[in-house]
Give the backbone structure.
Amino acid sequence: MKKKIAIILELVCVHYNCSLEELYHPSRIRTFVQARYTAMYFIRKYVKLSYAQITEVFYNDTKPLYHHTTIIHGIKTVKDYIDVKQTPVYEAVVSVEDELSEMALFNPSPKIIIHYPKRMKPSTIVKELEKKFKNLTYELV
């Protein structure tokens, strides 16, 4: 879980051209706020943390920087930007999403083990699977 969060934070920093310190700083500069909100959005989406748990990711010394309602607002803001499209936030979200989806850690390919009757030809099963599922990893037993 910590590894996923670290990867998300690193990618967001790269796409918003800011450092990790700037991401954690309570500054209200638009770029840093948008970067934080984007990081919150991806942590919620890929790590499946609750809003309260996301506040714990953004600690400053011993106390959380944000209340869980700020996390809710931030994630909603990013979703609104995604709906509008053609905004810098949307472009950053799409770019980070593309990079995350390429990583096996965030998008493991599904694997199905199929037990089939001996009288069926494996090639028949494979053809049916390939019709229904593209890019599917499977193993015939």
The chain has two domains: 2-102, 111-140. The chain has seven helices and four strands. The mean pLDDT is 83. The two ends are 33 Å apart (CA to CA).
